[in-house]
Amino acid sequence: MFAVEMRGIVKRFGDLVANDHINFELKQGEVHALLGENGAGKTTLMRILYGLYHADEGSIFVNGQQVSITSPKDAIALGIGMVSQHFTLVPPLTVAENVVLGYNPGIRLNPQQIQRRVAEAAERFGIEVKSDALVRHLSVGERQRVEILKALYRNARVLIMDEPTAVLVPQEVDILFETLLRLQREGLSVVFISHKLNEVMTICDRITVLRNGKNVGTVFKQDVSQSKLAQMMVGRETFGVTRQGERIQGEPVLRIENVSAVDNKGLPALKSVSLEVASGEILGIAGVSGNGQSELTHVLSGTMKPTSGKILVDGQDITGADPATITCAGVGRIPEDRHGGVVGELTVAENMTLETLDEYTQNGMLDRKRMLEYTNTLIEEFQIKARPTDRARTLSGGNMQKLILARTLARQPKVVLAAQPTRGLDVGATEYVRKKLLEQRERGAAVLLISEDLDEIMALSDRIAVIYEGKIVGILDAHEATPEKLGLLMTGAREVVSHA
Amino acid sequence: MLKFRIERAPSPVWMRPLLPLLAVLITFVVTSVFILLANANPLTAYYYYLTSPFTNRVSMIEILVKATPLILTGASVTIAFASGYWNIGAEGQLYAGALAAAWIGTVVGGWHPVLAILAMLLGGFLAGMVWASIPALLKVKLAVDEVVTTLLLNSVIVFIISALLNGPWRDPVSGWPQSPTIADSAVFPKLIPRSRLHLGFVVAVVMVLLIWFILSKTPLGLRMRASGLGQEAARFMGVNIQRTMLIAALLSGGIAGLAGVGEVAGIHFHLIDALSNGLGYTGIIAATLGGLNPFGAGVAAIFLGLLDTGAQSVSRSLGVPIFLGNVVQSTLLLVTLGVFMLQNYRIRRV
Known about the structure:
heterodimer, A: 500 residues, alpha/beta, Rossmann fold, 2 domains, 6-stranded mixed beta sheet, 16 helices, 22 strands, globular, B: 350 residues, mainly alpha, ABC transporter involved in vitamin B12 uptake, BtuC, two-stranded antiparallel sheet, 69% helix
């Protein structure tokens, strides 16, 4: 008998089949990985189990009984808990209040009592978190533990973890794994959604691989290797786009001098950041999300003004300039949020030319014919699956990113600013984007790569700068950077003297 | 039992053109309650609303007369909304244009009519622009919300006009709170003899063509649509949002001002404080019903003109209050907004 069995699950979103007759079995007391690329259907399947989505076809059995789950309430009643990527906690409330929120019988709340109960539960499950602490004071790792406690407090016997390590630094990942393994020994069944092979091999007993909404196979950990799993995930050998050859010592093109900025709440987000990027090199910025990467991207893109400092491109001061000026100065920008880089309701051709509209104007009117011709050329060159007259919002994530790449790189910018360029893309598109960035390096552009994907940073960068709490806490040469060293820097453990 | 659920997903394309019709239908169902309360048969009432204006030549032309200012305010609101500038102030900008026209109309006595009329149009356009520039500058310089400022300034100009008409500007001949009658040379020529249809209708059609041309054929229009459809992305792509919005706001104000000129020079021949009575707000209905498409807004304006004309004959023949017409129009706006929300949802069976 399985803790959870899902049979023939089908879920469609319009024309897209997110889950295509998927069978999934979770044994009592196992950690079972749901492995697959972004968009393979992992989260969709688990959202169906948790009652957030409704399957179009298929049935679900919990402990051998067929069940109908129409809302998370049903799932919780069946002992299923889910910790999603985006936490559902109320920051100004205490841990205890968050844990009992929506699960408090009656209408009266007894603060001492719930605090005691939650503290007891934390103790019993071995989850290290202070029940009277305010959630807003907690680190990301601690918040995740509160989410787990919340599920266990509701008597979860099955815990779904959706990409739990995406937001954690390596040291916090270790703590998470210890917690999960201890809970597993006590009989908890865990579904571990991930696209990271090494994690899956570390923690899981069995692995189910999804690809394009289909179950490619369920295997025991001891029967497979990482490369075999990768092959199952992508249907071919793992991608190997990495930087080749030593960096050509070029002249610094982009100079960032003591730049500070505040976030949209007015709090300091960048603290005197200084960086230089030379032509023909990729400088990677590593860091846990929310440590100033967004603000750095915005300041360099012209969508946010720095409070002090200077930004120079080839000697031209672009500090606080608007996006149009920065584009003219030779900076090609790939925004961290694709949807913030294209207007979805406008056509592909309009999005392709909006930055340089003056070149497509004749006698005060738009030269639609030239806009279409130019767009067609780029569509071919960058292998974009779209027509120039399609609305941009109808494009898939990968094609939308290619649109932005085409628009940006076709102008042969001196500086390429790439923020989270592969976030949410499948392997094929990721490979393509990385190849294009390396091409820019070969061409002699100065590439600033801001990414939360450590593997990506290490695969592409000539030098790696680590950002922590708005400060650059270290710059390492690629060959001296290890995940451990970077991980320490990313948690702000100590400042490392730069050798680069 | 059948269970239904609402999902956030774009509705099928074939449904889009049906949405305005659906809005009209729902409006009729909702407002039939009020017509019943007025002791009339709703079906008869709607029959009169929609058909009585077509029964004779005078009222058929009257549809276009009523539609003329609505086409202009509809165009005014369309260009503003399409650019992401929520101008609720067409009403006030219309009054600003009317104020300018009423004044210019009294000083162009000896001029050639062509010059006099051009002066009226230009003056009204500029006055609408100037009045619109106050909230527009507050928006682009200080990020003050334009919905609030444009709306509140509507009352301000009505009170200014009221003060003028009851004080220094009171017509010395009649003694009524109205401005002196404008000179003959400033009166808009009639398009059809023995009717009230005046030059303003031509101006309105030209304005619809103008904003269609700007929005779909010029780089400025593409930038306007970009800032309306995705402001953050447009800003990222180097569109100067502030400048684009300012231009849209000023054009919008100018076109609304022309509606005021038409009402003074084509219909009333002097300024009264009840000159508009909501033409600016009805322009919002026209623009929304027309899906922010200039031609759509024009067609919607004519439909609203039909309802207006129909309201008079319904009132005459069935004895229901004439303001039921306003109730129908206002309900139509609310229902239209609701129906356009539907565009982004689908109803599915669980």
